[in-house]
Amino acid sequence: MDERDVYRAKEAMQSAMKKVPMRLALIIGAILIGFLFLNPWVQIGAGERGIVLNFGAVQKDVLGEGLHFRIPIVQKIVRMDVKVQKSLTKSAASSADLQEVSSEVALNYHIVQDKANIVYQSIGIHFKERIIDPAVQEVVKAVTARYSAEELITKRPAVSEAMRAALTERLMAHNIAVDAFSIVDFSFSKIFTEAIESKQTAEQHAQKAKRDLERIKIEAEQKITAAKAEAESLRLQRANISPDLIELRKIEANLKAIDKWNGILPQVTGGGAVPFIGVGDIHKK
After folding, report:
1. Phi and psi at residue 96, in whole multiples of 5°?
2. What is the pTM of this model?
3. What is the per-residue pLDDT across 145-190, written as a single tens digit (0 to 9) for each?
4. Cα separations in angstroms, 58 against 12, 66, 80, 121, 153
5. Which of the four CATH numbers 3.30.479.30, 3.40.720.10, 1.10.10.10, 3.40.50.720 does domain 85-188 have?
6. Angle of helix 133-144 versus helix 156-172 axis, rounded to 10
């Protein structure tokens, strides 16, 4: 081997040495790009749970909040909202006395967190339309039919509690928990509403008449009591009058008359006699 061959071999080796790091960098870069493209990380937000699917099959593990690793291509993560949600549902029903009742109810509910995978597997993510709304409709109709239209108004708390209890039991079978339930509105037919208003007006008039009658009775009793007291006072006064008391009152009257006399005798007298007040009475004493 001459010097030229040695030189060529040296250059080939140097060229190969320069290409190796570049190829390695390209390989590593391709791996990183592929790794990021396959997205092996998943983040579960606050109030959410992650449903793990292996080639579409629901797994037992439910991912909590935070960052989790998944196997690319093999695993898919479906997020489910487990926060408290509100549902407003309108329903038409009939009362026990066959009155038409339109109602609107509000329901607060949430998915049982550790059963989110079962809810997804058996119902899916559209559980409100599939489970909650039909359950509310059926419970409202069933409970409304137990009460008369008037009782639906007067016993509203009891009606609301009966609906809440029935709905809680029904939805818990599907791993949906009820947080709160309330009846937003009850409305009846125009004829029934007018009848209720007329009844209330009649009751108000009856109560007013009753109050007026009680007032008249009280006033009459007060007058009778006052008359009795006055009669008793007169009786006691008559019982206390005696001849001595009469004489004393006469003397007191004469003395008052003398006090008022100015000492001048009248110029004309009926029979020529000079009157003197009470002289005869004083002489008798």
Report:
1. -65, -30
2. 0.56
3. 999 888 888 888 999 999 999 999 999 999 999 999 998 887 877 7
4. 57, 20, 13, 7, 47
5. 3.30.479.30
6. 140
